[in-house]
Amino acid sequence: MSYQTILVEVADAIMRITINRPKQLNALNGETIAELSTAFKEGESNTEVRTIIVTGTGDKAFVAGADIKEFADFSVAQGRELSKSGHRNLFDLVESLKTPVIAAINGYCLGGGLELAMACHIRVASDNAMMGLPEVSLGVIPGYGGTQRLTQLVGKGKALEMIMTAGMMKAEEAKEWGLVNHVTFQNELMGMAEKIAGRIAKNSPKAIGLAIEAVNAGLEDGVNGFNVEIEKFGEAFGTEDFAIGTQAFLNKEKPSFTGK
Length: 260
What we know:
This protein is an alpha/beta fold and 260 residues long. It contains ten helices and ten strands. Strands 1-2-3-5-7-10 form a six-stranded mixed β-sheet, with helices on both faces. Strands 4-6-8-9 form a four-stranded mixed β-sheet. The radius of gyration is 19 Å and the shape is globular. The two termini are 26 Å apart.
C-alpha cells in the first residue's frame, strides 16, 4: 500500500514503521493515525512479521504531539468522538496486537506521541529523548489513553505530577520510573530495538500472542487476569508451536516455530 505520512518496510521478520512528517516534528494528524492503523493491521496479518518497530523520521522527534490545528475549533461532541475513534483505530489496537510492538523513541515524545509509545509493548529511548503530556497547558487533557497508561506505568502520584505540570521527563529518569525499558545513544537506538526484536523472533509467535492477551487482561476492570492466564496457558497446549517447542527441547534442538 502507498502511504503519504509514514514509511513502511519489512525485512528480517521485522516491520519498520516510520512516521514521516519531519516539518511537523512527526505530529499525529487524522491521516497519519489512519495510515498507522492500516500499517499495524498489515503487520499483524503478515505471517513473515515477528515484530513491529515504530519510530519517527529524523533525530528531533519520535512524535511531538497531535496536530492541534485539526481540532482547535471542535465542539464537545467532536472532542469526544476524536478521542473515541483514536482509541479504537490506533492506540487500543496497538496495545492489543499479538505481534509485539517496540517503540524506538528518538527525541521529543510528547502528547499523542507518548500515548502511542505507551500503547506499544516495549519502549527503547535515545539518550536525548524527552517525554511528557503537555495537554493541560492547552486547556485539555490527554485523550488517547495517556491518563490511564501513564498511571499504570509510573503510578498515580508521578502520573498526576507529569500531567498537571505539563513537564517533560528526560530519558534516564523515564527509565528509572519504568516508563521506558532501555536508554541508549541515539546512533544505537534502532540497533538496540532490532536486537530486542531478534530475540523475540526466536520464540513462539503463538505463545507471545497469548502472553500479551494474558498481561493485558490483568489491567482490565472487572477481569481476573489469573483466570485469563489459566485459559491462555491451556490454549497453548493445543498449538503447533507447543508441539514444535517441546519436541525441539526433548531432542536438544533449536525450534523453528510456525506461529500456529
